[in-house]
Amino acid sequence: MEDNPYVKIVQLVRNQADRQIPTLFRLGTVISPNPLKIDVSSTVQDEGALFKNAALGELESGDSVLLVTLDGDQHFIILCKVVGV
């Protein structure tokens, strides 16, 4: 199977596709609730880059939140608060 050139082509296509699929969700940590600042992938996002689910309650410093990325990580929607089990 290793000598089959088609296997190598399929592997190459899969590797390229994996690199092109964007990450849609990010986990963030609330740094400050007012003004709202969230650490997302080691970058601090402020109110100018954040949108919030209207049903989401108040956030506190240290809360973990699940975010959806927009515009190639330029803006984020805070979906919900995330807690451990």
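The above is record 1. Record 2 follows with the same two-line structure.
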Amino acid sequence: RSSDLREVLPCDALTVSCNEMVDTKTVSLLLGVLLAQGNKEDEIEGVCGRVLKLLESRQAEGQSLRHLLPILSKVLDLTPEALNEEQVNTMSRKLVDWLRYASTVQGIPISSGGFFSSPRLRQPAPVLEVDGAVAGDFFTVLSIGQYYTEDQWLNMHSFSMIKKWLLCYEAEGASSPEADEKSELDSSIMSMVSACSTSSRLMPPKERLREKVFEYCNRLIEQSDRKALKKSDSDLQKACLVEAVILLDLICRQDMLFVYRAFPVVKALYGRICADSTFARVLLPVAQFYLNHSETAGVDSEAVYKRLFTKIPTELYQDPMMAFEFVQFCRENVKTLSESVGIFRRSFPSLLKFVAWNSSSLFPEFIDLLPVLIDYDTAI
């Protein structure tokens, strides 16, 4: 079994090959074994080549490509340079198709072929929104169905790994605040931004993927405004909001032209959720987005920071996950916060509540913040 083979130490005398295998689930298990047994460059390149070859091929009925995407994700963790430029472009095109063009009708259950099974095929039903309405736009992880088609599964798996992919393979030639002076963003550039989506098919593969991820995140944010019928779907909405804002932030860091398209979306989202404590976890990536891009967009961000540093420490200090994520946010942005966000230092007494209620797990992280938090005005 693959679980047993994973425990076997790498052995040069043992050669395992999957070149002749066509069953994708078996291949995924075997490739998982190869990756778990060592980090040999030639083996990883072989695994990568086999995965990509299968992803590009037409699969027989009953075969599923979605088993291979976790293997590709593992390759990105180990050796992202195992993919050459042509392979990266090919996969970027695949990800565009899976993210943006999945079917909008539900899958059909596989018949067991029993005596009482109906010979008639039911008309496929459309996928639904979380509030029960028929989906009016493209499929996402927040689209609901009783059964899912293969391309819908690929859509969901692709979304789970898209951040890692974008981090590994940033598009060349992307604009950034460091490379372009803000004064150069005149009306001609802004018109180019507005026309960006209409010409996306003319873009290089990696840039087109980024455009489609932007559209996907917008769609998720729109779907999150619907009233979910189930609590599990409501929880999923919040998780998707966190991921969507993180992805928008990443896209804008890679190409500043997206800032002017993303900021109205994030600003509207903040206005919608800021007073609802159940969306507190979403405030952190929203605040991160403002930290990274408010200066570029010329947007006042003081109200966002004020709510973040007053609402969460005073109302949600007993939530261990919220406390950990909040302190991590402060640690990762301590330089910017200490230099540009005045309320960060002034909130020091309130931040102590996190330590008081979560001291054993949080103290090592929190102690890193003390040098910038404690001064004559905040010492108690």
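Residues 84-107+126-173+201-299 form one domain.
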